[in-house]
Prior knowledge:
This protein is of the alpha+beta class. It has three helices and five strands; from the N terminus they run αβββαββα. The protein has a five-stranded antiparallel sheet. The longest helix is centred in the C-terminal third of the chain and has 64 residues, at 150-213. The protein is elongated.
Amino acid sequence: MRFVKWGVLAVLGLFVFAFLHYTLPQHDIVRIVGTENRRMEIGENSWFFASPDVGTASTASRDIYFINTVYPDGGTMEYRNEDTGWGWPPYFKMNNSSLQTEAKDLISTKDKPIWVAVTHYGWRNQLFTIFPNAVALQQVEGPDATIIPWVNIVILGFALVVGFMLWRMWAQFRERMIEPAVIDVQETLDGLEERTERAGEKARGFFSRLFRRG
Length: 214
């Protein structure tokens, strides 16, 4: 049972980690090399795309803005630029057109690079055709610029505090309510077992005397 318990906890921990890694904002230092408006059919991978832009109809096929970038080491990354609206995750992004204009204004070449910090959430997976969603752009001095993830620090710190408080509440509840109840049940069972044994001994003694008289 111990292996089952730790296995379940490991799976739950993996799901929590994946959820936080997908949802919390991340920062990439990149050079923007182009933007495009791509018509896409949203199918089984719809979980990894935001809802249609605020004020537009919901269809399986729609135009999606993309921002094409290059990392300092030459690797490439494509970000979608979609509104999140009032849905999940709660970035309340409703300015994808303005962000696309910012991205166009920050396009640069390898000879004269403009380095940009792209704040995004989500994953890039070529097999399932999913892209991280850019939520903000900020020009930085160079590819070695340091971005402190204050939002993640605050959210994770708050989650740790809440988790610790819940753990303490559970520990106190178990100590005050569950453990005494378990002890009472155990004592009741022990008392019942003792009474059963005494009753059995009396019965054996009775039949023993009865057979001797017979």
